[in-house]
Amino acid sequence: MKKISKFQSYGIVALTMVAGLLMSFAPGKSYKIGDSVADFKLKNTENGKYVSMASFPNAKGYIVVFTCNHCPFAKKYEQRIMDLDKKYASVGYPVIAISPNDPAVAPEDSYDELGKRAKEKGYTFPYTFDETQTVAQAFGATKTPHVFLINKEGGKLILKYAGAIDDNTEDAAKVTKNYLADAIAEVMAGKAVTVTETKSVGCTIKWKQS
Amino acid sequence: MKCLLALLLTGYIWASYAQTAEVVKFGELQKVMMAKNDTTYVINFWATWCVPCVKEFPAFRALAAKHKNEKVRVVMVSLDFASEKDKTLAPFLSKHQIDARIMLLDEPDYNSWIDRVEKSWGGEIPVTLIVNGATGIRTFFDHDFTPVSLEETFTKTINKQQ
User: Could you report the predicted ipTM of this complex, rounded to two decimals?
Assistant: First the structure.
């Protein structure tokens, strides 16, 4: 989040490499910025077909957004998520929406309800259901909405940004910092992302009670 | 005239009992978190749309009632949207009385202040912060409470450094 010197960044790179080695022995840890992420395969609630990042072979990257039907924050961002796909799919960064909630806790987020909402609103992107919650865990998603920007680099899927879409959930007209759009612009320009992570209030993901 | 007086008086009494939330900026919350006096502040971050928050609300009411005559102040920091408070927070507060300071934190750029409450906090609610400027206590809890667990946690926390 803060600007760091070159020396510090080398240190961080070295530390990240060590941490990466350690983490490969510790399953359950989620992706960090700069990590290569694994593709996933989730059912699109709009048509029952499985969707992966590989389903978009021409994409340069992906906007993976964990969202849902029931959460007031997700509702506030619904139109903005639809607009993101309209704006960025054509330039190579399509939206893939994932609802990770356990419908036993949030009935509005059942497979059928998700599909219904997507069709009603005419989503132009897949609205998938992460039934096992393993994708949300892998990404380290904690809330809805929670967005992750992925860029294809040398055949790998690299995590470039994680956090909020912008700085005003309540009112899209009052947004002053477009965190995600700024990150996409930097990635598209081949620059390093300035703000790689942001924090936000949101609804907690409804994890399955184990 | 008498009638008018009675009406005004009734209005005054009603107003003094009705709970309202102060709409505040981060600085106002900061003042409570950084207060140097010997009051223990139990600061709960919540919202009416947050199911676990609403569920644990009675725990904070019970804590506030039990420690009413001590130097303990419960502060309920609502993250409801300021523009919708008359539809969300106000009806909730008219149904759920609590002896607490109630704030609505109107700071939409969450990323600008979440770290200033607690570095390890990602922004999920409910969370609770117990602070006492005089004893230097500052403990953050990223889980919800029952009335029993809150009372126990509170007692343990304030006795830790006394």
Answer: 0.80
